[in-house]
What does this fold into?
Amino acid sequence: QLQLVESGGGLVQPGGSLRLSCAASGSIWPKYALGWFRQAPGKEREGVSCIHKRDGSTWYADSVKGRFTISRDDAKNMVHLQMNNLKPEDTAVYYCAAESVPFTAQEMCDNKYLEVWGQGILVTVSS
It folds into this structure.
């Protein structure tokens, strides 16, 4: 069973940047699509950004377009989320996920019932 471990979270001021990383315990290409989700206090988990298992196509939530960038490093079995111009509303627990069903990137981000989840990492944007 694949395991995912997130890193890189923490406290950042509004307008700042963070880079989240997710390390997989096994090979992710070409089997798994990867994605980032978040859950803010009192809200449902939502898809932030996902990347297709083979062609590298991506999808972003409207709220993060132009600010966040997802990338995958299949050689190192990792996926990253570069977050720039962070806002207080980006405060949430961020989760990495992997899925072997051949969803599109958007389908994966729209789906809360995915195959593998990380434990989550807290990102707090505050002055």
Remarks:
- Residues 67 and 84 are 5 Å apart (CA to CA).
- The helical segments are 105-109.
- DSSP finds one helix and eleven strands in the chain.
